[in-house]
Amino acid sequence: MWKLVFLGICAVLAVCVLALHSWVWAWAKSPNGGVPAYPATWPKPLYNFQANPPTSAGIALGKKLFYDGLLSADGYTSCASCHQQFAAFSTYDHPLSHGVNNQFSLRNAPGLFNLAWHTNYHLDGGITHLDAQPLAPITATNEMGETLENVIQKLQNHPVYPALFQKAFGTSKVSTRLFTKAISQFLVTLVSANSKYDRVMAGTDTFNLPQRLGYELFMAKGCAGCHTPPLFTNFAFENIGLPIDSTLNDYGRMRVTQNPQDSLRFKVPSLRNVQLTMPYTHDGRFSSIDQVLQHYNSGVVAHASTSPQLRKGISLTKFQMGQIKAFLYTLTDTAFVKNKVFADAVVEKPGMQHHP
Ligand code: HEC
Ligand code: HEC
Fold first, then answer.
1. Which of 72, 119, 135, 329 is deepest in the core (most CB within 10 A)?
2. What is the pLDDT of residue 30?
3. Is 35 a member of any domain?
């Protein structure tokens, strides 16, 4: 009797799970509300798509703005000059990125992908809405060095932008609100979910031995507690025990909250595409993944705010480090960084040239 009841409950549960699964897939795949497709196993994005539903005209406008040096004082420093697609939209090989007049940004430019899932933006979480984010680099004197009024003026007087705003939003009057909405529409399409890891999880590929052992270590050593799959971050602010850089004096989250508990805490970065986003950590002090792993193994300097699970470091043999690295490389999404849909229409622009 009880066996039958139990089996009955199991059957009902199985049907529910299946129904939910196909519903989520259907929802995620439908062009409904312009929400970009993402795997059914992911949590729902947090970005408010109802308030700014992406359309093809809006996304195209946002992309044009992202690649346009017109948004900066010198006419060359576009968003894309610091956020390079081949580096998963981070600044490749520069600890700090270059702004106008050969100035440096305070921090290492993070990769841009899966932004619709973030709870807040910047490594100290100082920005709470994606639509507000572009205002920071545009007006920062060491980044794009412009004023918003000027940018809006330049766009309004431009030969093609007013028509593109008309197409995207039904008005040719350029405003900060519509300008930032267009950029967000492009940014939220940057979904990176097609790495080997994703294929393994979907059952269409398999890890080789070092990758599998690395994955097991990643789970067993507590890395996943902060770099939580499937997005490989829990979006928390943590202090991993890096000594302060006394020239930058960047105390991270404490700059926003003024709370000493938050001293040296930075947003947990996603490890997706980590192979492509070197150098690492908020100031780019580590030029390789090996150096980061070496830090966890033996470099942690515990402060009052250092995360408890890292106070004693995470011991890793050279062999284990190699395996973890092999696993981390499976998070590289080649299709994403090569996707022409996200690339500039014009291949070579002055603003895209290499910095010294
Ligand atoms: C001079 C280089 C530079 C330029 C130009 C630049 N960025 Fe950034 N971007 C950065 C840096 C550095 C950070 C990290 C800032 C911080 O944490 O304080 C960042 C952070 C971001 C983030 C937050 C990512 C996260 O994980 O929290 C977004 C989104 C972003 N930039 C988009 C843009 C857009 C859109 C533009 C153009 C309007 C732009 N950036 C222009 C360097 C740049
Ligand atoms: C307590 C949370 C926490 C744990 C546990 C943790 N990390 Fe991190 N990790 C972070 C934070 C926060 C940063 C960024 C620090 C900064 O910017 O200064 C980071 C940075 C990194 C980076 C550099 C990424 C980049 O884009 O800059 C790598 C690689 C990394 N961690 C791998 C690991 C591995 C592997 C483990 C397990 C051995 C691990 N982490 C455990 C929180 C954590």
1. 72
2. 41
3. no
Q: At what angle do helices 176-187 and 56-66 cross, to 10 degrees?
A: 100
Ligand 1 centroid–CA 190 distance in Å is: 14
96: pLDDT strictly greater than 90: no
In terms of domains, do 245 and 202 share one?
Answer: yes
- Residue 298 is part of which domain span? 196-332
137 lines ligand 1 (CB under 6 A): yes
The answer to whether the Cα torsion of 106, 107, 109, 113 is positive or negative is: negative
Whether 61 and 127 share a structural domain: yes
8 φ, ψ to 5°?
Answer: -60, -45
Asked if residue 179 and residue 268 are part of one domain, the reply reads: no
Residues 164 and 211 in one domain: no
Whole-model pTM?
Answer: 0.89
284 and 181 belong to one structural domain:
no
Report the separation in Å between the CA atom of 326 and the middle of ligand 1, taken as the mean of its atom positions. Answer: 29
Regarding whether 224 and 322 lie in a shared domain, the answer is yes
Which atom of ligand 1 is the closest one to the Cα of 77? Answer: 5
Cα of 281 vs centre of ligand 1, distance in Å, is 15
Confidence check: pLDDT of 349 > 70: no
58: pLDDT strictly greater than 90:
yes
Please indicate, yes or no, whether residues 131 and 224 belong to a single structural domain of this protein: no
List the one residue out of 160, 202, 195, 147 whose CA is nearest residue 60.
160
- CA–CA gap between residue 284 and residue 277 (Å, rounded): 10
Cα(226) to ligand 2 centroid in Å equals 7
